Amino acid sequence: MDYKDLRELMVRTQLIPRGIRDKRVLDAMERIPRHLFVDRTTIADAYSDMALPIGEGQTISQPYMVAVMTELLELRGSEKVLEVGTGSGYQSAVLAELARDVYTIERFASLGELAKIRFQDLSFTNIHSRIGDGTLGWLEEAPFDRIIITAGAPEIPEPLIAQLADGGIIVIPVGGLYSQQLLKTRKKGDNLIKEYHTLCVFVPLIGRYGWKRE
Ligand code: SAH
Q: Does the beta carbon of 152 sit less than 6 angstroms from any atom of ligand 1?
């Protein structure tokens, strides 16, 4: 089987049966070469139903989790999206296929720089990346129509709520250090409308408005 077959199999056996409906999300994940975002040593498992180590004690999320979070963002193509936790860059690439622009922040320079090379190699011109503490957001580029945090947080970082456009959506795993629940929050004027989804396990969001240390 080649990588294209493995991607088709991933969509058909891991995503569709578990309820991923958004055709654009399924198509994007069938297109993005996930094997180019994993470590060479784990390439045989690039399309397996699991998270994989990417260095610095961090992981690339399981394909299903990427699909769920992306679907919850309700992307139509015109959105400006902020991602906190670039990691491998795989989730950023999926977002870039479905939105207008993606701004992504990573705290480890080694991971952020590697992801940037991947974006260039794959000719993604609508992904803007930087190194830093993503819990502070990206003030110069705010407001964002959508914000996705791909690390587990005690609660939604305050600056990210402030940098979300009215009518915008934040998707974030919230809870304890070892298990969380996906939270989708829509901003309506001064109100936040919250919806809880699947249980999940993410590496911790470390920063000024996240966990203080590992
Ligand atoms: N979206 C990634 C998932 C990576 S795991 C992917 O598809 O591969 C989460 C990432 O969040 C890790 O790389 C971790 O270093 C990063 N992270 C944790 N706290 C952060 C913070 N405050 N700002 C930016 N990145 C952070």
A: no
Rounded-to-integer distance, Cα 70 and Cα 74, Å: 7
Q: How far apart are CA 188 and CA 92, in angstroms?
A: 26
| pLDDT < 70 positions in the chain | 214
Distance set, CA 90 to CA 87, 102, 162, 167, 187 (Å): 8, 12, 26, 26, 27
Q: Is 78 labeled as catalytic in the residue annotation?
A: no
What is the tens place of the pLDDT at every residue in 127-164? 999 999 999 999 999 999 999 999 999 999 999 999 99
User: What is the helix (H) or strand (E) element at residue 26, kind and residue range?
Assistant: helix 23-31
Asked if residue 205 has its Cβ within 6 Å of ligand 1, the reply is: yes
Look at strands 191-200 and 180-188 and give their pairing.
antiparallel
β-bridge pairing 127-131 and 101-106: parallel
- For the chain, domains (ranges, CATH) are 51-200 (3.40.50.150)
Specify the 3-state DSSP secondary structure of 171. strand
